[in-house]
Input
Amino acid sequence: MTYTDEDVREGRRLMDEGRENRLALGDRLLAVAGLNNDSVFEEFCGRIGLAPATGREYRHTARMATPAIRQLIAEGAVHVSYSTLREGARPRPGGIPADEGWAKLRTLLKEAREAGRDRVTLAYYQQVLGTAPALKELVDPGSGEPERACLVV
Output
């Protein structure tokens, strides 16, 4: 697979438009380099000013965000951020997405509409998925790190 100057211009335009276009940028990355062409992928990311690690995240999230879930979100009055979609697409051990088939997000969208809420927040979605950080990590971020011994000479 290769890419054209037009692909580069389009990738840069998508980068400039910010978070609303992360899925579209992920789609572009899939179209340009697929999943198995790392050299083209990394070169393209470099040409548009995107870190390859971030590009991999965009590409994965775009691949997991099916046309059906995108349409459901687009047609509704409930906002779902890219970060929220990324959380549902994030692979758990074994490679299965945190919200396989988007069943939990669909339920949250329905509940939000019925309650008159205008968005599904990342924090709430994380709670539902069981991926929210522990309270101890929020209160004392360094608490999960092993203690480092200091040698005083």
About this structure: The beta strands are 79-80, 119-120. The chain is about 60% helix and 5% strand.
